[in-house]
Amino acid sequence: MDEVEVVVAHSERATLRVGDVFLKVDAxxxxxATEVEAMAxxxxxxPEVLWREPPVLAIAAVPGTALGRLGEPSPAxxxxxxxxxxxxxxxxxxxxxxxxGRGGWGGRDPGALAAQLDAECAALVSDGVLPADLVARNRRxxxxxxxxxxxxxxxxxxxLTHVFTEGDAVTGIIDWSEAGPGDAQFDLATxxxxxxxxxxxxxxxxxxxxxxxxxxxxxxxxxxxxVRWLAAHGFxxxxxxxxVDVLRARM
Length: 251
Prior knowledge:
five-stranded antiparallel β-sheet, three-stranded antiparallel β-sheet
């Protein structure tokens, strides 16, 4: 009998793997509904939905291997990263999904996001989590994301662990619970977070429209907002190559 592997577990949701089946348990059923509908609409390879019995969603594993992991060198080839960029472009060129909201931070109201960022920056400094100059520098870089843009169909949480390839072709993109109208540059930044050298490969497949300055802004913003949350939920943002190193790279 296959062993039960705990993929991720915290107070909001948990994902278990049993053989080739993933069981996702989520207290927010609207988030699960978004995931199912987004996978049906997205013009890219997605997992097969096996069944849904709230609060559990069962999906099949996709073939291939993930592009990599944050904090570790990516084993994927430049061609695989370019293929990922091409898949993201197909998604961004698709019609907008029919629901409002989601889209990760790239779909948030800019004023509300800026207020959240300022509050988080203040907490990082007052709690002694990060040096004030490091926070201030990255807050200035993050300002680049607050500009007019046309929303596109975004994944909303396009971490490199969510993109699978085989033979330099994308075989599946998983975890669509944050999908929705949002900023294309946020998806590109999330995909390349901690692997900045891969942005050029992604751009080869994505084509025109990559904005490196905005991508860097999202690297800073995402990392600033994530540090305390990750630490509170059992993750280590100070691990080599992870969020704090992303912030330090901006210095």
